Amino acid sequence: MPITVEKIIFAIFADVLEVEEGDVTLDFSKEEDSEWDSVNSLRLFTNIEDEFSIRLDMNEFMNTSTVRGIVELVEAARI
């Protein structure tokens, strides 16, 4: 079974925010986790760019408040 964009992003979020991977869902949001602050947003941004070898718009990324939104940004950048 291929590893999906979602699963990779879930793993990155779990690692950066130090939560269980099973706790990260598409609806996981900044409001839900106090660790998802500006510093960790930057860590997420760079880890995701590195993992997928893509460039994301930092303002768009920082204004996205759910994992679903991040997945959509990554999928759009991979096209």
TrEMBL record:
Highest taxon above the source species: Bacteria
Record-linked InterPro entries: ACP-like_sf, PP-bd_ACP
Carrier domain ranges (all copies): 1-78
Protein name (Swiss-Prot/TrEMBL): Acyl carrier protein
Origin species: Halalkalibacter alkalisediminis
